[in-house]
Amino acid sequence: MSIKLKDIADKIGVSPSTISKVINNKPGVGDQLRQEILQKVQEMNLRPKKNVGGFLKEDTINIQLFIRRNNTTESDPFYSLIQEGISQELQNHKINLLLYYLNENSIDETTFNKIYQTNDIKGNILIGADFDNDFLSKIKKLHIPTVLIDNFFPGLSSVNTNNSQGALLAIEHLTQMGHKQIAFLSGPLEHKSIEQRNNGYLTGLNKFVGKRSNPFVINSDGVSVDDGYNSVKNTSLKNYTAIFAATDKLAIGAIKALREEGIKVPDDISIIGVDDIEWGLHTDPSLTSINIPKQQIGIAAARLFLNLYDEPELNGADMKINTSLIQRHSVKILHDS
To answer: Could you check whether 61-160+294-321 and 163-291 share the same CATH topology?
Structure first.
Protein backbone atom coordinates (compact mmCIF):
# COMPACT_ATOMS: atom_id res chain seq x y z
CA MET A 1 0.00 0.00 0.00
CA SER A 2 1.30 3.43 -0.90
CA ILE A 3 1.16 6.38 1.51
CA LYS A 4 1.95 9.79 0.03
CA LEU A 5 4.01 12.44 1.80
CA LYS A 6 0.87 14.57 2.06
CA ASP A 7 -0.99 11.81 3.92
CA ILE A 8 1.44 11.73 6.84
CA ALA A 9 2.00 15.50 6.67
CA ASP A 10 -1.74 16.08 7.19
CA LYS A 11 -1.76 13.79 10.23
CA ILE A 12 1.05 15.75 11.91
CA GLY A 13 0.04 19.18 10.65
CA VAL A 14 3.21 20.01 8.69
CA SER A 15 4.05 20.43 5.00
CA PRO A 16 5.12 17.53 2.75
CA SER A 17 8.48 19.27 2.25
CA THR A 18 9.11 19.04 6.00
CA ILE A 19 8.43 15.30 5.91
CA SER A 20 10.81 15.00 2.96
CA LYS A 21 13.59 16.80 4.85
CA VAL A 22 13.22 14.42 7.80
CA ILE A 23 13.20 11.15 5.87
CA ASN A 24 16.16 12.34 3.76
CA ASN A 25 18.04 13.54 6.89
CA LYS A 26 18.31 17.12 5.67
CA PRO A 27 18.60 20.25 7.88
CA GLY A 28 15.84 22.79 8.41
CA VAL A 29 13.65 20.90 10.88
CA GLY A 30 13.84 21.29 14.66
CA ASP A 31 14.89 18.32 16.78
CA GLN A 32 11.56 17.97 18.56
CA LEU A 33 9.52 18.02 15.34
CA ARG A 34 12.00 15.70 13.66
CA GLN A 35 11.57 13.14 16.44
CA GLU A 36 7.81 13.48 16.32
CA ILE A 37 7.79 12.79 12.60
CA LEU A 38 10.15 9.81 12.88
CA GLN A 39 8.03 8.37 15.68
CA LYS A 40 4.87 8.76 13.61
CA VAL A 41 6.50 6.99 10.67
CA GLN A 42 7.47 4.12 12.96
CA GLU A 43 3.99 3.91 14.53
CA MET A 44 2.39 3.72 11.08
CA ASN A 45 4.78 0.89 10.10
CA LEU A 46 6.00 2.78 7.03
CA ARG A 47 9.21 2.89 5.07
CA PRO A 48 10.28 5.50 2.50
CA LYS A 49 9.97 4.54 -1.15
CA LYS A 50 13.24 4.72 -3.07
CA ASN A 51 13.75 7.65 -5.44
CA VAL A 52 10.16 8.87 -5.18
CA GLY A 53 8.12 10.70 -2.57
CA GLY A 54 5.93 8.80 -0.14
CA PHE A 55 5.94 5.62 1.89
CA LEU A 56 5.04 1.99 1.57
CA LYS A 57 3.24 -0.04 4.19
CA GLU A 58 5.44 -2.87 5.39
CA ASP A 59 2.71 -5.42 4.65
CA THR A 60 3.78 -8.06 2.12
CA ILE A 61 1.62 -8.10 -1.01
CA ASN A 62 1.11 -10.98 -3.42
CA ILE A 63 1.63 -10.60 -7.16
CA GLN A 64 0.66 -13.38 -9.56
CA LEU A 65 3.41 -14.00 -12.12
CA PHE A 66 2.10 -15.98 -15.11
CA ILE A 67 4.57 -17.48 -17.59
CA ARG A 68 3.33 -19.02 -20.82
CA ARG A 69 5.13 -22.36 -21.08
CA ASN A 70 6.27 -23.77 -24.43
CA ASN A 71 8.40 -26.74 -25.44
CA THR A 72 11.65 -24.87 -24.77
CA THR A 73 10.72 -22.77 -21.72
CA GLU A 74 12.90 -24.82 -19.38
CA SER A 75 15.95 -25.00 -21.64
CA ASP A 76 15.68 -21.51 -23.18
CA PRO A 77 16.82 -18.84 -20.69
CA PHE A 78 14.89 -16.01 -22.40
CA TYR A 79 11.93 -15.88 -20.00
CA SER A 80 13.98 -16.95 -16.97
CA LEU A 81 16.24 -13.91 -17.44
CA ILE A 82 13.19 -11.64 -17.64
CA GLN A 83 11.89 -13.27 -14.46
CA GLU A 84 15.27 -12.67 -12.81
CA GLY A 85 15.02 -8.95 -13.64
CA ILE A 86 11.53 -8.78 -12.14
CA SER A 87 12.62 -10.51 -8.93
CA GLN A 88 15.73 -8.35 -8.67
CA GLU A 89 13.71 -5.14 -8.81
CA LEU A 90 10.88 -6.24 -6.51
CA GLN A 91 12.87 -8.01 -3.78
CA ASN A 92 13.23 -4.85 -1.70
CA HIS A 93 9.56 -3.91 -1.88
CA LYS A 94 7.93 -6.55 0.35
CA ILE A 95 6.36 -8.18 -2.68
CA ASN A 96 5.76 -11.91 -2.92
CA LEU A 97 5.81 -13.33 -6.45
CA LEU A 98 3.52 -16.34 -6.91
CA LEU A 99 4.67 -18.23 -10.02
CA TYR A 100 2.22 -20.03 -12.29
CA TYR A 101 3.23 -21.73 -15.55
CA LEU A 102 0.50 -22.05 -18.17
CA ASN A 103 0.78 -25.04 -20.50
CA GLU A 104 -2.10 -23.67 -22.54
CA ASN A 105 -2.91 -20.06 -23.40
CA SER A 106 -5.57 -19.84 -20.69
CA ILE A 107 -6.75 -21.52 -17.48
CA ASP A 108 -10.15 -22.88 -16.55
CA GLU A 109 -12.67 -20.86 -14.57
CA THR A 110 -12.30 -22.94 -11.39
CA THR A 111 -8.51 -22.54 -11.28
CA PHE A 112 -8.76 -18.84 -12.10
CA ASN A 113 -11.21 -18.20 -9.26
CA LYS A 114 -9.17 -20.28 -6.81
CA ILE A 115 -6.01 -18.27 -7.53
CA TYR A 116 -7.63 -14.93 -6.82
CA GLN A 117 -9.91 -15.97 -3.96
CA THR A 118 -7.24 -17.88 -2.05
CA ASN A 119 -4.10 -15.78 -2.38
CA ASP A 120 -5.33 -12.17 -2.01
CA ILE A 121 -3.63 -11.17 -5.27
CA LYS A 122 -2.92 -7.44 -5.55
CA GLY A 123 -1.50 -7.42 -9.07
CA ASN A 124 -0.28 -9.42 -12.06
CA ILE A 125 2.71 -9.70 -14.36
CA LEU A 126 2.28 -11.93 -17.41
CA ILE A 127 5.19 -13.10 -19.58
CA GLY A 128 4.39 -14.47 -23.01
CA ALA A 129 3.10 -13.62 -26.46
CA ASP A 130 0.12 -15.93 -26.87
CA PHE A 131 -2.23 -15.70 -23.90
CA ASP A 132 -5.86 -16.15 -24.90
CA ASN A 133 -7.75 -12.85 -25.30
CA ASP A 134 -10.61 -14.11 -23.11
CA PHE A 135 -8.10 -14.87 -20.36
CA LEU A 136 -6.59 -11.38 -20.65
CA SER A 137 -10.08 -9.90 -20.61
CA LYS A 138 -10.78 -11.68 -17.31
CA ILE A 139 -7.49 -10.36 -15.91
CA LYS A 140 -8.47 -6.84 -16.96
CA LYS A 141 -11.85 -7.12 -15.20
CA LEU A 142 -10.06 -7.73 -11.89
CA HIS A 143 -9.12 -4.01 -11.91
CA ILE A 144 -5.76 -4.60 -10.24
CA PRO A 145 -2.34 -3.39 -11.48
CA THR A 146 -1.26 -5.63 -14.38
CA VAL A 147 1.76 -5.60 -16.69
CA LEU A 148 2.14 -7.72 -19.82
CA ILE A 149 5.57 -8.62 -21.19
CA ASP A 150 6.04 -9.48 -24.88
CA ASN A 151 2.33 -8.91 -25.43
CA PHE A 152 -0.30 -6.21 -25.81
CA PHE A 153 -3.96 -5.96 -24.80
CA PRO A 154 -6.13 -2.82 -24.86
CA GLY A 155 -6.49 -1.29 -21.43
CA LEU A 156 -3.56 -3.16 -19.86
CA SER A 157 -0.02 -1.87 -19.43
CA SER A 158 2.84 -3.62 -21.17
CA VAL A 159 6.58 -3.76 -21.74
CA ASN A 160 7.70 -4.84 -25.19
CA THR A 161 10.80 -5.04 -27.29
CA ASN A 162 11.08 -2.35 -29.95
CA ASN A 163 10.79 -5.03 -32.61
CA SER A 164 10.59 -2.69 -35.59
CA GLN A 165 13.80 -0.95 -34.49
CA GLY A 166 15.52 -4.34 -34.10
CA ALA A 167 14.48 -5.45 -37.57
CA LEU A 168 15.75 -2.19 -39.04
CA LEU A 169 19.12 -2.78 -37.35
CA ALA A 170 19.32 -6.23 -38.94
CA ILE A 171 18.47 -5.06 -42.45
CA GLU A 172 20.77 -2.05 -42.18
CA HIS A 173 23.66 -4.29 -41.13
CA LEU A 174 23.06 -6.76 -43.96
CA THR A 175 22.90 -3.99 -46.56
CA GLN A 176 26.07 -2.42 -45.17
CA MET A 177 27.71 -5.81 -45.73
CA GLY A 178 26.60 -5.68 -49.36
CA HIS A 179 23.42 -7.75 -49.27
CA LYS A 180 20.48 -6.58 -51.35
CA GLN A 181 18.38 -9.74 -51.72
CA ILE A 182 17.27 -10.59 -48.18
CA ALA A 183 14.59 -13.10 -47.20
CA PHE A 184 12.59 -13.00 -43.95
CA LEU A 185 12.10 -16.25 -42.01
CA SER A 186 8.90 -15.46 -40.16
CA GLY A 187 7.00 -16.99 -37.28
CA PRO A 188 3.22 -16.71 -36.84
CA LEU A 189 2.18 -13.18 -37.77
CA GLU A 190 -0.64 -13.25 -35.19
CA HIS A 191 2.12 -12.80 -32.61
CA LYS A 192 2.45 -9.05 -32.29
CA SER A 193 6.25 -9.20 -31.99
CA ILE A 194 6.58 -11.26 -35.18
CA GLU A 195 4.24 -8.93 -37.05
CA GLN A 196 6.34 -5.95 -35.95
CA ARG A 197 9.57 -7.67 -37.07
CA ASN A 198 7.96 -8.40 -40.43
CA ASN A 199 6.96 -4.75 -40.77
CA GLY A 200 10.48 -3.69 -39.80
CA TYR A 201 11.91 -6.04 -42.44
CA LEU A 202 9.75 -4.49 -45.17
CA THR A 203 10.49 -0.96 -43.98
CA GLY A 204 14.21 -1.76 -43.87
CA LEU A 205 14.23 -3.09 -47.44
CA ASN A 206 12.44 0.01 -48.64
CA LYS A 207 14.79 2.31 -46.71
CA PHE A 208 18.16 0.65 -47.30
CA VAL A 209 17.67 -1.21 -50.60
CA GLY A 210 14.81 0.57 -52.33
CA LYS A 211 13.56 -0.53 -55.74
CA ARG A 212 16.29 -3.17 -56.03
CA SER A 213 14.78 -5.16 -53.17
CA ASN A 214 12.76 -8.32 -53.68
CA PRO A 215 10.89 -9.16 -50.43
CA PHE A 216 10.43 -12.86 -49.71
CA VAL A 217 8.73 -14.13 -46.53
CA ILE A 218 9.31 -17.76 -45.55
CA ASN A 219 6.32 -18.65 -43.39
CA SER A 220 6.72 -20.82 -40.31
CA ASP A 221 4.12 -22.37 -38.00
CA GLY A 222 6.10 -21.48 -34.88
CA VAL A 223 9.39 -19.99 -33.68
CA SER A 224 11.33 -23.09 -32.60
CA VAL A 225 14.47 -24.68 -34.03
CA ASP A 226 12.33 -27.39 -35.65
CA ASP A 227 10.08 -24.75 -37.20
CA GLY A 228 13.08 -23.01 -38.72
CA TYR A 229 14.46 -26.30 -40.00
CA ASN A 230 11.18 -27.44 -41.56
CA SER A 231 10.43 -24.06 -43.15
CA VAL A 232 13.81 -23.75 -44.88
CA LYS A 233 14.38 -27.44 -45.70
CA ASN A 234 12.51 -27.43 -49.01
CA THR A 235 12.66 -23.71 -49.82
CA SER A 236 14.68 -22.42 -52.73
CA LEU A 237 16.87 -19.46 -51.78
CA LYS A 238 19.07 -19.37 -54.88
CA ASN A 239 18.24 -15.71 -55.57
CA TYR A 240 19.00 -14.57 -52.01
CA THR A 241 22.27 -13.86 -50.25
CA ALA A 242 20.92 -13.37 -46.71
CA ILE A 243 18.14 -14.37 -44.31
CA PHE A 244 16.74 -12.30 -41.48
CA ALA A 245 15.11 -14.75 -39.05
CA ALA A 246 12.41 -13.62 -36.60
CA THR A 247 14.07 -15.55 -33.74
CA ASP A 248 17.45 -17.10 -33.03
CA LYS A 249 15.82 -20.53 -32.78
CA LEU A 250 14.41 -20.17 -36.29
CA ALA A 251 17.86 -19.10 -37.49
CA ILE A 252 19.54 -22.10 -35.83
CA GLY A 253 17.06 -24.48 -37.46
CA ALA A 254 17.63 -22.79 -40.80
CA ILE A 255 21.41 -23.21 -40.51
CA LYS A 256 20.93 -26.94 -39.93
CA ALA A 257 18.60 -27.29 -42.93
CA LEU A 258 20.94 -25.31 -45.20
CA ARG A 259 23.93 -27.40 -44.14
CA GLU A 260 22.07 -30.59 -45.09
CA GLU A 261 21.44 -29.07 -48.51
CA GLY A 262 25.14 -28.35 -48.91
CA ILE A 263 24.65 -24.60 -48.48
CA LYS A 264 27.28 -23.04 -46.24
CA VAL A 265 26.68 -20.18 -43.79
CA PRO A 266 28.00 -17.55 -44.31
CA ASP A 267 29.99 -18.49 -47.45
CA ASP A 268 26.86 -19.13 -49.53
CA ILE A 269 24.23 -17.28 -47.52
CA SER A 270 24.33 -15.01 -44.46
CA ILE A 271 21.86 -15.10 -41.57
CA ILE A 272 20.83 -12.92 -38.62
CA GLY A 273 18.52 -13.90 -35.75
CA VAL A 274 16.70 -12.08 -32.98
CA ASP A 275 16.90 -12.61 -29.18
CA ASP A 276 20.66 -13.21 -28.70
CA ILE A 277 20.12 -16.42 -26.73
CA GLU A 278 23.11 -18.41 -25.52
CA TRP A 279 22.54 -21.15 -28.08
CA GLY A 280 23.65 -18.74 -30.80
CA LEU A 281 27.14 -18.64 -29.30
CA HIS A 282 27.55 -22.34 -29.94
CA THR A 283 26.27 -22.68 -33.49
CA ASP A 284 28.75 -23.15 -36.33
CA PRO A 285 29.19 -20.38 -37.29
CA SER A 286 28.27 -18.36 -34.21
CA LEU A 287 25.09 -16.39 -34.83
CA THR A 288 24.92 -12.66 -35.44
CA SER A 289 21.81 -11.53 -33.59
CA ILE A 290 19.63 -8.65 -32.46
CA ASN A 291 20.07 -8.51 -28.70
CA ILE A 292 16.97 -8.14 -26.56
CA PRO A 293 17.98 -6.95 -23.05
CA LYS A 294 15.99 -9.53 -21.13
CA GLN A 295 16.84 -8.54 -17.56
CA GLN A 296 16.26 -4.88 -18.43
CA ILE A 297 12.78 -5.81 -19.67
CA GLY A 298 12.07 -7.55 -16.37
CA ILE A 299 13.31 -4.57 -14.37
CA ALA A 300 11.24 -2.17 -16.49
CA ALA A 301 8.13 -4.32 -16.00
CA ALA A 302 8.64 -4.39 -12.23
CA ARG A 303 9.10 -0.62 -12.09
CA LEU A 304 6.02 -0.09 -14.23
CA PHE A 305 4.06 -2.32 -11.87
CA LEU A 306 5.19 -0.30 -8.85
CA ASN A 307 4.13 2.91 -10.60
CA LEU A 308 0.71 1.41 -11.40
CA TYR A 309 0.33 0.28 -7.80
CA ASP A 310 0.90 3.85 -6.63
CA GLU A 311 -0.88 5.63 -9.49
CA PRO A 312 -3.60 3.39 -11.04
CA GLU A 313 -4.52 6.11 -13.53
CA LEU A 314 -1.28 5.35 -15.39
CA ASN A 315 -2.79 2.08 -16.62
CA GLY A 316 -2.55 1.43 -20.36
CA ALA A 317 1.09 2.50 -20.78
CA ASP A 318 3.19 0.59 -23.34
CA MET A 319 6.95 0.80 -22.79
CA LYS A 320 9.34 -0.01 -25.64
CA ILE A 321 12.83 -1.37 -24.94
CA ASN A 322 15.40 -0.81 -27.69
CA THR A 323 17.64 -3.53 -29.08
CA SER A 324 21.26 -3.71 -30.24
CA LEU A 325 23.18 -5.66 -32.87
CA ILE A 326 25.65 -8.34 -31.77
CA GLN A 327 28.06 -9.18 -34.58
CA ARG A 328 29.45 -12.70 -34.76
CA HIS A 329 30.30 -14.92 -37.73
CA SER A 330 27.11 -15.79 -39.60
CA VAL A 331 27.20 -12.73 -41.90
CA LYS A 332 29.69 -12.37 -44.73
CA ILE A 333 30.80 -9.25 -46.58
CA LEU A 334 29.98 -9.54 -50.27
CA HIS A 335 33.07 -8.70 -52.29
CA ASP A 336 31.09 -7.40 -55.22
CA SER A 337 29.08 -4.90 -53.12
So the answer is: yes
Q: CATH 3.40.50.2000: does it fit domain 2-57?
A: no
Q: Which CATH superfamily is domain 163-291 in?
A: Response regulator (3.40.50.2300)
Burial-class residue 24 by CB neighbours within 10 Å (0-12, 13-18, 19+). Answer: exposed
More confident residue, 267 or 73: 267
If you ran DSSP here, which 8-state letter would residue 285 be given? S
The domain locations on the chain are 2-57, 61-160+294-321, 163-291
Q: What is the pLDDT of residues 116-130, one digit of tens each?
A: 988 889 999 999 988
Q: Is residue 44 classed as helix, strand or coil in its secondary structure?
A: coil
- HEC profile for 232-288? HHCCCCCCCCEEEECCHHHHHHHHHHHHHCCCCCCCCCEEEEEECCHHHHCCCCCCE
The answer to whether 309 and 2 have CB atoms below 8 angstroms apart is: yes
